[in-house]
Structure formats: C-alpha cells, structure tokens
Amino acid sequence: MIRITDMKGEHTDMTDTSSPSCIFGECEIMKISNQQYMAMVTNNNCMLAGILSESGCFLTSAIPISDDDIEWTIIGPNSTYIRNLIMRMRSEGYGVKTLSTSNMDLESVLTEKQENCLRIAYEKGYYDIPRSVTLEGLCKLTHCSKSTLSVLMRNAECKIITNYLSFNRNMIKEHKR
After folding, report:
1. Which residues of 31-44 are buried (b: 16+ CB within 10 A; e: fewer)?
2. Does the pTM exceed 0.70?
3. Is the four-CA dihedral 61, 64, 65, 67 of positive or negative sign?
4. In the chain, domain spans
5. What pLDDT score was predicted for residue 20?
C-alpha cells in the first residue's frame, strides 16, 4: 500500500481508469481526500511481496541501507500479525532483524484538517526562523479563527512529538538489549 499526495490537485483522473493489471501484478488507487490517494500495488513475481500481502500487514517504507540490507517500516493490526510475518519470512530463508517496535493508536494519527493546516504552515514558513508568516496570516489561508487554528496546530504538534519521542524511546530500549 502506498500513500500518494497530490498537493496541486493535478492528478484528479487517477481513480478514473480501471485498475491496471498485467502478469507482473496490479495497482488499485483510491481517493481518500482532496489531495490524498492510497494505492494498493501487488507484485506477482516477488515471493517476499506475496508473504507480506498474505500477512495482513502493510509496508509503509523501505529504505535501502546497503546492497544487501533494506530497512522496512511495517504496520499491522497488532503485534501477533507482525510476529507471524517475521517468523514466516525467516522460515522462507530471509534474514530479518527487528530494530524496534511500538504500538500506534488512532489517537496518534493526524486528522485531515490537522495535516492540511500543518502542511500550509510549513510551506508558508511558519516554522522557519524567523517566521515568514504569522498565525494571523495562516488564519486567512486556512479559514480558521486564531484560537481554533492555535488549538488545532498544538494538538497536531503534540501528536507528532509524542509519536517521535515514543518511537525513539523504543529504539533506544531495543538497541540496549
């Protein structure tokens, strides 16, 4: 599953076509908001992709570390799904090393409005030093009152900071083991 962001709204026709399919796999695209799409990509020729697909887990990022190592970020409904995926990968001969784990709940996910306001604030330079735009300037761009926008942004920032600190705390614990 891949998240696609279309900031300028240039690709509104992405979901108009039928799911492209061939012997190698298929791709299904769903619109989830004005600027966000989710694509489910299936690769029929990769055994590891098949194992992942059958696991009920999702690959959210894959970063090449070396020619032989790829660091994956995987989410699953619970730790049992992740553990079963890792055991299956190992049983098929794949070398797997767990770097860290953390629980994620729905309260840690930004709402569409929070994400949109933070993106506008970031793009307009609200987080630059010195700031390129004031909170009042952002209010005009987001069509929110100053108090509403302030609370919305602080709640979103709190979610991001909490996730970041929680993730790093788990990384430190895992590396100390």
Report:
1. eeeebbbeeeeeee
2. no
3. positive
4. 2-91, 106-176
5. 59
